[in-house]
Amino acid sequence: MHFDNEKTLLVEVAQNNPAAFELLFKQYHNKVYSYSIKICQSALQAEEIVQDVFIKVWINRASLPNIENFGAYIRIMARNQVLQVLKRIALETRCHALMNQDWTEQQKETENYIYYNDTRKILDRALSTLPPQQRLIYNMCHLQGMKQQEVANQLHISRLTVKAHLRRAVQTVRSIVLVDSHILVAIILSQLFKK
């Protein structure tokens, strides 16, 4: 099918002539594709842009006879479609980054919570092995933050007795925590190397 000029071709497309639309598509397909691929750097996206542009041309075909310069018109349509695609890609990239960040933060919070609980269990187990007086003095000094003299006054014993009980308690707790923490470190390392 042959049309005398582009204006006649646009009129025929506006009158629902599929052969005229096919000819218009053939004339401008490569220009829209070349423009799109140059900016998007993706053949798949460039093809989608071509399809979207020509779908819009067909949907708005009634206005085609009013267009003075179809080449400029289709170039603007292609540019607008490319911009929409780039905005969508930027939004998707940002969403993926935010989801990954949230996931990583939640994962870290969960891991920190697990490590804290494991460490707390190790400490509680170590404290449970202490004789009652050592455990009481350890709790008062290390967990409640009391000074040795305050503990001595409250328990009605000498500060040197508090100091001796505290030293033995710390040694016992340290030795148990060290043994258990080696096991904990081994578990953590094995989990890291699985990833």
From TrEMBL:
Residues 24-88 form the RNA polymerase sigma-70 region domain. Transmembrane segments: none annotated. Pfam families: Sigma70_r2, Sigma70_r4_2. It comes from the Bacteria. Keywords: Sigma factor, Transcription, Transcription regulation. PANTHER family: RNA POLYMERASE ECF-TYPE SIGMA FACTO (PTHR43133), RNA POLYMERASE SIGMA-70 FACTOR ECF SUBFAMILY (PTHR43133:SF46). This is RNA polymerase sigma-70 factor. Belongs to the sigma-70 factor family. ECF subfamily. The lineage of its organism: Bacteria, Pseudomonadati, Bacteroidota, Sphingobacteriia, Sphingobacteriales. Residues 121-171 form the RNA polymerase sigma factor 70 region 4 type domain. Gene3D superfamilies: 1.10.1740.10, Winged helix-like DNA-binding domain superfamily/Winged helix DNA-binding domain.
